[in-house]
Amino acid sequence: MPEASFSRGAQHPPTAVPRVEPPPSAPLATTAAGPAGLLASLAPLLAEWLPRQRWFAGKGRPITGFSLVSATELLPCAATGTTPGLLHLLVRAQQPEPAGHRHGSGCGHPRGAAASDCYQLLLGVRPALPPRLAPALIGRPTGGPLDGRAVYEALFDPRLATLLLERLRMPGTLGPLRFLREPSAAIPQALAPRLLTAEQSNSSVIYGDTFILKLFRRVSPGTNPDLELPLALARTGCTRVPAPAAWFEAAPPAEGAGPRSDPFTLGVLQPYLAGSTDGWQLALDALAARDDFTEAAHALGQATAEVHLAMARALPTTVLRRPQIEHLAAAMSERLDSAAAAVPALHPYRAALHAAYEDLAALGRAGRTWTAQRIHGDLHLGQVLRTVQDGGSGEAGPGPLPGPGERRGGPAGAGRGDRGPLVPQSTCG
């Protein structure tokens, strides 16, 4: 797929962000294949920078190339002056397929011999980088439209992080990006941003201890469960999950998207649960003080039950019969073999686990059925919160995760479960 066209904010005046007035500047030079030389000039920098990011899923494998899915200028990248530019990119990083791994490539890219995860990048651009932003530096491109300028992780820059919130406050379309907002959501202006540094598979910015924006780094076609499920649960009146206030998404690429035409969820803004404590820390504190954890565990069970009952009301359920049960058992066996290949310590348990999966398949052949629904498939104590107000629960995601299409298998997630949110936590994503 050739480089995508470059979108400029000036094309959509209704969505222009107030209070950020850059000096006049010429637009970045573009060609039919996109910004002239943009990706070629950034590729050497990204090849070094991406593997160092905690949210990069391809660690341990060389990057063999990049392709540009979209490039959108949220704030013009001036060649002079002190006003920073803000560039939004969706980039595919091409890497060798891991041995024995069935990879679902991102951005709708067709399957092939090479893995092709799609990453969301927010790049700040300045002629000179202030010392306070030095840790965010990605590098200075040689050639291309950003030649010689400092390119850096934009979320470290409060001015650019604030601009992103303003975009969410003012719904509209900017090139392939679409910003949406719940009509009833009140999002104040001038909330001070704070980037959370203890991140895993995503990036999160807290605004004024009022909202938290989770930015999905590895994206793929389809609505991310971190948006889909809170919206569905909010419609049932479930108060265990903060309802999304705003979100943004990208249109699918014009080429190479395959049969799917779903947009990519890029980020979700939700109320921030200030003063909350995650369940893992609560358990550790109870152990250290030799306190009884029974009451807290019971409250967690109640919250989990409430959320899953609400999911059953809000989302479709289905009946798993023999074909689905046999497929489920086979999929679990395949995942076990992949896990054991990566972790030899699992080998002593393989036979017993395979036998259990075969017993499950046998029950399906014997006519057993189960009602299935969407679930939280990898819930653990580190993903739930006790809030100051009412002891409510919350959720955050662990480690690099598959995209929406891989982790959603219809009701019950094809037995794998959904990593859709119970409630968003602020300390990791």
Automatic annotation (TrEMBL):
Gene3D superfamilies xrefs: 3.90.1200.10
UniProt-listed SUPFAM superfamilies: Protein kinase-like (PK-like)
Catalysed conversion reaction: D-maltose + ATP = alpha-maltose 1-phosphate + ADP + H(+)
Keywords of this entry: ATP-binding, Carbohydrate metabolism, Glycogen biosynthesis, Glycogen metabolism, Kinase, Nucleotide-binding, Transferase
GO molecular function: ATP binding; kinase activity
Span of domain Maltokinase N-terminal cap: 49-157
EC number(s) reported in the record: 2.7.1.175
Record carries keyword Iron: no
Class of enzymatic activity (EC top level): transferase
Any one biological process term the GO annotation gives: glycogen biosynthetic process
Region (Disordered): 1-32, 388-429
Pathway info: Glycan biosynthesis; glycogen biosynthesis
Subunit structure: Monomer.
Stated family: Belongs to the aminoglycoside phosphotransferase family.
The protein, known as: Maltokinase
Naturally occurring in which organism (per UniProt): Streptomyces sparsogenes DSM 40356
